[in-house]
Amino acid sequence: MHILGIESSCDESGVALVKFDQFNSPADTSSAVKLPQLLSHALHTQIEMHQPYGGVVPELASRDHIQRIIPLLDQVLQASGVDIHQVDLVAYTKGPGLAGALLVGAGVAVSLAASMNIPVLGVHHLEGHLLSPFLSADPPSFPFVCLLVSGGHTQLMRVQSMGQYELLGESVDDAAGEAFDKSAKLLGLDYPGGAALSKLALLGDPKAFNFPRPLMHSGRLDFSFAGLKTSVLTQVNKMSAQQIEASKHDLAASIQAAIVDVLVKKSIAALKQTQLKTLVVAGGVGANSLLRQNLISECARLGGKVHFPELYLCTDNGAMIAMAAAMRLQYGIESGTKNYSFDVKPRWSLSALSL
Ligand code: KG4
Ligand code: ZN
């Protein structure tokens, strides 16, 4: 079967095609050999378009998705050598995300499916992130703890099996990506800033500034990053522009260390609490190299293992949406619909999806 995936929840338009064999029965699903295979994917990021505004402008995002999705689709079909009529199902991001942006992807997906009389399936964006490591060279197996760290979400989930998600803890205010981005902005870096801040941090001293590690020793698996941003603001307000410039590497390294320390500590606590040995990291912040390094070593100390998506699949993309749809079909959870009326869910919790 071929599944086309369309992602348009925020500031990236993504289209991808995966191929997979339908299981004879859900009991077959243990073999990694049967994981869906990514045939091709194409992505357009709107970051440059939003940069002058310091954040995503929803109306501009929607308009840009309208222009990008069909050319990206052509690119994917051409690169894979698959004819559009060989597509068996069209998957799209149904939520969470920006309402207007989601409607563009949903509208294109449903129109395409209707024109070919094939089923369509709305996918949860965070389930896509969570399953993206299954497209890596070293896929995990269920059950596992997932640390989901994106621009909008910071969550620890217990993933018992496909479609079985239990929320263990989440951010009570800013997401980890937001903490990176807001701190980066205070250092004068362009939106979204997380990757640029971590690049600066490479040359800095992580102990130069002592930023708070909120809720680190609370014994809970919840996160809070709003206080960190305030503390960075207080620190930079005490400094002149020249001092900030001279200390930017140390500031970046200290900010990154504070965020990463909390993420690592809570992830390890979640593994201990659930007595699971496998950690899966997903979402844009999962690209952070210090986070990767520290999680690898801390999980190894526990006798566990951590799995990451390939770097190009950390950010939003169509492949994870096609993958999530394929796995929902494989596990007999959903089969899509030929009812071509549709809605989107800008706010949608992943636990609400749980079986
Ligand atoms: O998952 P994602 O692409 O979009 C959302 O669904 O939110 O995540 C984007 C977030 C941004 O906050 C960005 O700054 C952050 O991921 N990010 C990073 C790095 N690369 C991307 N944060 C820290 N270090 C990085 N290397
Ligand atoms: Zn995302």
Describe this structure in words.
The chain has 355 residues and is an alpha/beta fold. The protein has 2 domains: 2-132 and 313-353, ATPase, nucleotide binding domain (Nucleotidyltransferase, domain 5, 2-Layer Sandwich); 139-308, ATPase, nucleotide binding domain (Nucleotidyltransferase, domain 5), CATH 3.30.420. It is 40% helix and 18% strand. The strands form 2 sheets. A 5-stranded mixed beta sheet has the order 3-2-1-4-5, with helices on both faces. Strands 8-7-6-9-10 form a 5-stranded mixed beta sheet, sandwiched between helices. Helix 2 runs parallel beside helix 3 (99-116). The chain is globular and about 60 Å long. The model has no long low-confidence stretch (mean pLDDT 95). Zinc ion (ZN) binds at residues 125, 129, 150, 283, 316.
